[in-house]
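Progress against Task 2.4 (sequence-to-structure conversion) is shown through the following example record, which the project officer requested during the mid-term review.
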Amino acid sequence: MAFNKILVPTDGSEYTKAAVRKAMELAKLSGGKVTALYVLDQTILTNMPMDTAVMNVYNTLEKEGKEAVDFVRDLGASEGVEVEVVIKEGTPVKVILDESANYDIIVMGTLGRTGMSKLLMGSVAERVVRASQCPVLVVRSTEGAN
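Structure tokens generated for the chain above:
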């Protein structure tokens, strides 16, 4: 099986950077292209009152997303791997699963949710593994690892 189209969901955290590096290795081996996907998580926004605070959160998430995908693009440039950048709004699990039919493999870390949020939402990676339409490679990372 060829891995020509590789999807890498990223939130810019250290948890996803290890997966980004693994995706680059895979792309170099297979001559594939990496798509960096950042999901602007609407669940965070829907639980807040609609006012300027929401716009501040939205702008912060947008900035985080741009930094997350720029990290992938820059690494791709230094590794000689073609990288496409996609930023979408929605729920991370749903967006990733919707995209899964268009890719040969998803390479992902455990998105940086911790504590109560992870307990309530479940593991994004775990839910993607269960329902993805393509193979999923989950890359474990120790927090703060380079």
